[in-house]
Write a structure and sequence with these properties.
heterodimer, A: about 400 residues, alpha+beta, 6-stranded mixed beta barrel, 13 helices, B: alpha/beta, 6-stranded mixed sheet, 4-stranded antiparallel sheet, 10 strands, globular
Chain lengths: ~400, ~230
């Protein structure tokens, strides 16, 4: 072991003649412990909530959605060659299943109450391949024939709809000409066969499902065409790679490819930004503790000026002296960081195992604060903490190196 | 026989906020041969410590040259000076300046550690030196557990660790009572004779100075041998 580290270890771990400096050093390490542990706990909670939200969305969303490029010259924003596209996509081994989907806005009317919804037309045998709709049915059944409609729980509550009620569905096709021409919008009467709850207010309040043929008729979409081709992959983590493969295979002037992440980019970006904001705010705890290290080290360098002078007399260079005190600060920070990681891990593990912090299930869909440990959080927090400690230790260690031995060793 | 130390036209001035410049001494020249024990006397404030600091390369002279073991110290950069001090110069100060967090053995071995040696390999010589000063059984004791005289003996042993060309002792007995002063001085002289060590000892104790082979007196900026 280099002698600088040998001396630094001994200095960091020994009691000093002035206990005040020892107290500051201990408090500094404790401050870093608390800051690091708090960061890990908070980030783990963010991870947990993120996992819950992602799980809800991904359950309903496809892993990959291929749609017509809305900037293309095509008059109808539909994919007009679904069989050909399907043949290309099926070659990718990562693709588990796929289904053509017809998706457009429509107006639902229950008695006199209208509501604009996103109406999705999908075949009965395809729906379970690319969607979690089947697992989300709260009442009724998942029936998607030419007389059926499935709606969300919030929509049902808002329009006072129960299983068996009939709804009138109006297509928006031709609506833009209604003021200048005698246009009769297409409409269908459908029976509510099932009500789903996705635990997502957006989905539950604005989505409805019906059969492929009903949607095709309402939206005037010919056979062999669809608004989107929705894919499920063997692993959701393959989505970015599959997107790249599809982009290289397909004509991107005609098709637009979105992963599950792209479908809610704003939401995920907001969640990511919240994580970073929490990180920045909480790392301030570590920053404050680092200032304590700065104070303790500055006092130590003052107390140790004779020892520094002696080491120079014995042959130590300025850079060696600087290293000794830099290492001392880093050791204090390292002890605090390791202790903080252990404490943070213990708290998060306990919450995961025993759910100490519970949530009101009448408000939240989960019974306890969700947490998820990620090793990258430990790495990021530890690196951040140690960088702050290194920054705080730099000035006092530099000051130590500037000690003039002749003055320091003068016997007073 | 070549000189172990040559001081030529050495001068030191300090800038002072009050009077402008303070000249400690100027144009000091002398030589020391290997194995000589030299006493440097003078009243308090005469510049004995300053002269030793300059010879020990802990300070920079305003003028003149210092050559130790054939090396002109003014030609060395800071890194070379540090290495030079480590290998060629041993120090004994008025206060023992032992590192309080380390044992007697570790303190003696410190110069070897700084030179890049491992403590294990330095321990053998450190133990020999500790035995020479009669404190082998105190190897694991820290300075706080030693008396003033014992701590100073450990400091003497440390000065010999790297078998330096020159040992500089600045008032080594200044902090001790008369009995311990005599004992320490005699120990230093016996070690110097045993290891053929060149010593320059600054002291205001003229009785002790009489025991040295050569004596210089520094006063009012002038150095005279007597």
């Amino acid at each position: 072991m280099r002698y600088e580290l040998f001396l630094a270890k001994r200095y960091a771990l020994s009691r000093r003649s002035q206990s005040f400096i020892t107290i500051i050093s201990i408090l500094s390490a404790l401050g870093i412990t608390v800051g690091v542990a708090a960061l890990i706990c908070v980030l783990s909670v963010f991870n947990g909530f993120s996992g819950v939200v992602t799980g809800i969305l991904v359950n309903f969303d496809p892993h990959i959605r291929i749609s017509a490029n809305i900037s293309s010259d095509s008059a109808t924003k539909v994919i007009s060659n679904i069989p050909e596209l399907t043949k290309q996509v099926v070659r990718l081994t990562e693709v588990k299943s796929m289904a053509p989907v017809l998706k457009q806005k429509a107006v639902l009317v229950h008695y006199t109450l209208p509501r604009v919804v996103m109406l999705t037309g999908i075949d009965q045998h395809d729906v379970k391949k690319v969607s979690g709709l089947g697992e989300s049915i709260q009442s009724g059944k998942l029936i998607l024939d030419d007389s059926s409609i499935i709606i969300g729980q919030l929509l049902a509550d808002n329009l006072a709809i129960v299983i068996g009620d009939t709804l009138q569905v109006f297509s928006p096709i031709g609506m833009e000409r209604i003021l200048t021409e005698p246009v009769t919008p297409k409409t269908r009467i459908l029976i509510v066969r099932g009500i789903f709850a996705a635990n997502n207010r957006d989905y539950d309040g604005t989505n409805a499902y019906t059969s492929n043929s009903v949607a095709r008729d309402l939206f005037d979409i010919p056979e062999g065409s669809a608004t989107t081709l929705e894919l499920r992959l063997n692993s959701i983590n393959d989505a970015p790679e599959v997107k790249q493969q599809l982009a290289s295979m397909l004509d991107t002037s005609k098709y637009h490819i979105d992963t599950w992440y792209d479908l809610h980019t704003d939401l995920y970006n907001v969640m990511e930004m919240e994580r970073w904001i929490a990180y920045v705010i909480l790392i301030l705890i570590v920053a404050v503790a680092s200032f304590s290290i700065f104070s303790a080290l500055t006092l130590t360098v003052f107390e140790k000026r004779r020892d520094i002078g002696l080491l120079v007399a014995l042959g130590a260079e300025k850079k060696n002296i600087q290293k000794i005190y830099l290492y001392q600060g880093l050791l204090t920070g390292l002890l605090g960081t390791i202790a903080g990681c252990i404490l943070g891990f213990a708290v998060v593990w306990a919450q995961k195992e025993f759910g100490f912090f519970t949530l009101d299930t009448s408000v939240y869909i989960i019974p306890a604060l969700p947490v998820e440990l990620r090793w990258m959080d430990f790495v990021a927090v530890s690196i951040g903490a140690m960088l702050l400690v290194a920054f705080a230790s730099f000035m006092p260690s530099r000051r130590a190196a500037m000690t003039r031995p002749a003055e320091a060793l003068r016997w007073e | 026989m070549e000189n172990i130390l040559e001081v030529q036209s050495l001068g030191k001035r300090y800038a002072s906020s009050g009077t402008g410049v303070v000249e400690v001494f100027h144009d000091i020249s002398f030589e020391v041969k290997p194995g000589e024990i030299v006493a440097l006397t003078g009243p308090s404030g005469s510049g004995k410590s300053t002269l030793l600091n300059l010879i020990g390369t802990l300070d920079i002279p305003t003028s003149g040259e210092i050559t130790i073991d054939g090396e002109d110290t003014s030609t060395l950069n800071s890194s070379e000076l540090a290495s030079f001090r480590n290998k060629k110069i041993g120090f004994i100060f008025q206060f023992h300046h032992l590192l309080p967090e380390f044992t007697a053995l570790e303190n003696i071995g410190m110069p070897a550690l700084i030179a890049g040696k491992k403590l294990d390999s330095a321990s053998k010589r450190a133990e020999e030196l500790l035995n020479e000063v009669g404190l082998l059984d105190r190897r694991s004791h820290r300075p706080a557990e030693l008396s003033g005289g014992e701590a100073q003996r450990v400091a003497v042993a440390r000065a010999f660790m790297m078998q330096p060309a020159l040992v500089l002792a600045d008032e080594p007995t200044g902090n001790l009572d008369n009995q311990n002063s005599d004992k320490l001085f005699d120990l230093m002289l016996s070690l110097a004779a045993k290891f053929n060590q060149t010593f320059i000892i600054a002291t205001h104790n003229t009785d002790l100075a009489q025991k040295a082979q050569r004596r210089f007196h520094l006063e009012k900026g002038e150095l005279k041998e007597y």
